[in-house]
Amino acid sequence: MRERTIASHFVRAALRGAERHGLDCSSILRQLNIQPALLEEPRARIAPEQFARLMQLLWEKLDDEYMGFGSNRSKPGTFAMMCYALIHCHTLEKALARGTLFYSLFPDGPSITLTREGEWARLTLDDSSLWDPDHFLVESLLVIWHRLASWLIGQRIRLEEATFTYPEPEHSAEYDLLFPNPRRFAADSISLRFQARYLSMPLLQDERTLKHFLERSPADLLARPDGGDSLISQIRRLLGRDCSSWPDLEAVAKQLHMSPQTLRRHLREEGSSFQELKDHLRRDLAIYHLGRDNLPIQDIAEQLGFSEPSAFHRAFKKWTGLTPGTYRAQES
């Protein structure tokens, strides 16, 4: 769903490079119709298109696709030229190899390598040259390379594992949108592991489709949440946007061809529950409507299945730390 919202942590992390270079981050936020005070609330969230625009503004104002996190700038257009360098390759393996070779021409940037490990392939990123205290750039690059590779072959590459050299962060629950696969922290390297069979697949894109792709990339690659085929994402798709007709847990379990007990157990293993999942979906839909519509808050509450506006106010403040009215005011 495009309504899946972005945690305020990632906004604060994205701005660290700009702050490092002395930019007025409050001005940048106001250009996005975000009041800087919104970021003081750890539970606050923003819409994905606002996040995409934030990335574009940071690239423009810093004149740097590394957003101020590298030891040297990566001039805007570098990513596009890398894409043009690999678009005529016949297979994904050759395309990724050419892409990593392209970035190796800039020795002060993060190093990216592709290796085979039997039936597995691994894309590894060396961040030793970066000033990246929140690991924002390195995680962004992993997401961008994964989604670029998937776009090149016309199908989503299923990740088997994502590894990170740093300890598991407090916001790790958000990683379901970035790396919907097993994740391992405090590992030896920062990498993505996937089946090597993808490497032999032909590229289905050309310069014509690349031109359209680059109109919104790589910002859109970062801002578009990718729940992949995780259980939570499957359930969100089954629930849909009409809160008044949501199926109950038993009906969802039946559609997923499992028992209710098995569904509850799998959700516990993913650190969630059916009620929490519905709450998060309501939260994201609420933010979606508050940011786009002129609907009265009472009407939004009704659309989300709340019998009383006061119940919606209490729930929204529990989710985001702000009341719906305050949130709408911060967004304007």
TrEMBL record:
A molecular-function term among this protein's GO annotations: DNA-binding transcription factor activity
InterPro entries referenced in this protein's UniProt entry, alphabetically: AraC-type_N, Homeodomain-like_sf, HTH_AraC, Tscrpt_reg_AraC-type_HTH
Residues of the HTH araC/xylS-type domain: 229-330
Record-annotated membrane-spanning stretches: none
GO cellular component: cytosol
Keywords in alphabetical order: DNA-binding, Transcription, Transcription regulation
Protein name, per record: AraC family transcriptional regulator
